[in-house]
Amino acid sequence: MSVILALVVALAGSFAIEASAAARRVSLRPGDVGVRLGSYALITAFWFVFSWRPWLAGASTLATIMITMIIDALKRKILGESLVFSDLALLRQVPRHPDLYYTMPLTHPRIAVPLLLAFLGVAAWYAIEPTALPLGWPASLLAMVALPAALLALWFGGRTRFGRAVLAARFPEPDLEADVARYGVLATMLAYLARREAEAATEVPPEPLPVPVERGDEVVVVVQLESFLDPTRLGGEALPVMARIEREAAQHGRLAVPTHGAYTMRSEHALLTGREGASLGFGGFDPYFSGGGREPTSLARLAKAAGYETVFVHPYHRDFFDRESVMRALGFDRLVMYEDFAGAARVGPYIGDEAVAARILAEARARSGPILIFCATMENHGPWKPGRLPGIDDPLAQYLHHVGNAGRAVEALIDGLSSEPATLCVYGDHAPSLPGYRPGDGDPRTDYALFRFGRPLPQGSRRADIRIAALGCRLRDAVARQTAAAEGAGVAVPRS
């Protein structure tokens, strides 16, 4: 009886917690409520397997829902998006790289002490509440085997043809905010994960790009500037580089990117593959986690086919976003990463953009043949919080300081590459997650510029506001001109 009562309390309490914390009014349609309560029941059963104590399992479920909703609210506030299944894969990065997130190391007293108290509380509860296992070791053993087996059977059942059809009927395509309002955060996360696995098992990869006949420029440099946009849009002073972009860039403008404030990999993937996130289905939430970089439309693959050396430059750790394996899968032969910047100047916690620009120019000058360099900078990565820069504690002031360095780095690249036939593309991966620039405020797009040195500037207006996947397609012309022509007018996107 206590098992049923604890389950009812866990389901009702979880529903009340999620309904009170939800960003939108929760659906009360019977089918939707059934799915939501089913997810709570699964969580309760999961915790029950570990303890066989119904009230401890119920309390653990309530704690799970409460913590989930707190994290979901924080993510919505900063990034404007609910939790998704791919966030679970990123959790392992938080203790490894706490400085990248609005958190502290596990050894910090504000984290370690609550964790220790929670552990001691669970241990005490475990000792006080009697087990709900049946009497006698045969019955207890049967129960201990049967419940985990039932949970595993349910999981694998969802991966059968029938199970996938049921999930596809409920979740035909990604509609994150609507699905969270209907079914809850955790149910949506689990369903999206299962739908992504089903997609991966049946998806047909896009056609590979045609083998290039004519090679493009000897040097092609693409720089993804962390959190970059024109600082005048945030009330900052105009950067000298923006005036040079107006005068010297072959094409420039606003860039529509897939996200706000984070998820660099979404913009990076769209640029390198020329694929919109919508074409990836449920994998669009984290293309690297979903596809692993094996896409045949990769710019690096095209460059390799045209005889280019392909280099990825990123002044951070190889394990972050699994970039080492993903970038090699995308077609990059050589990776220049954190250990290669030993002794390089830092600005705040990260390697400075000007040091990265110097390394890019050194790679271009040392080439033995045509070279494609793709770089992802780090200097202006959040969070912007007190103590990051000496004497500058205001988040916006910190951001503007870093973006000024980014502007000087871009100018150094322009000066270093302009004397030879070369292509330089610079763009912001997403708007910054600053307290004063929340999702939906103003214009969520970033800025980009495309320089084609050694050739006359195009006639007429060179301003073109485009989507980032279109910019990726446009860059194909830099390494293999006939490929871009074969792609057709898809690279020409009207101003948005």
TrEMBL record:
Membrane topology listed for this record: Multi-pass membrane protein
Positions of transmembrane segments: 45-71, 111-128, 134-156
Principal cellular location given in the protein's record: membrane
Keywords associated with the record: Cell membrane, Membrane, Signal, Transmembrane, Transmembrane helix
Every Sulfatase N-terminal domain range: 220-437
InterPro entries attached to this UniProt entry: Alkaline_phosphatase_core_sf, OpgB/LTA_synthase_biosynth, Sulfatase_N
Database matches in Pfam families: Sulfatase
Residues making up the signal peptide according to the UniProt record: 1-21
The keyword 4Fe-4S is assigned to this record: no
GO cellular component term, pick one: plasma membrane
Localization in the cell: Cell membrane
Database matches in PANTHER family: LIPOTEICHOIC ACID SYNTHASE (PTHR47371), PHOSPHOGLYCEROL TRANSFERASE I (PTHR47371:SF3)
Name the UniProt record assigns to this protein: Capsular polysaccharide biosynthesis protein
Organism: Methylobacterium gnaphalii
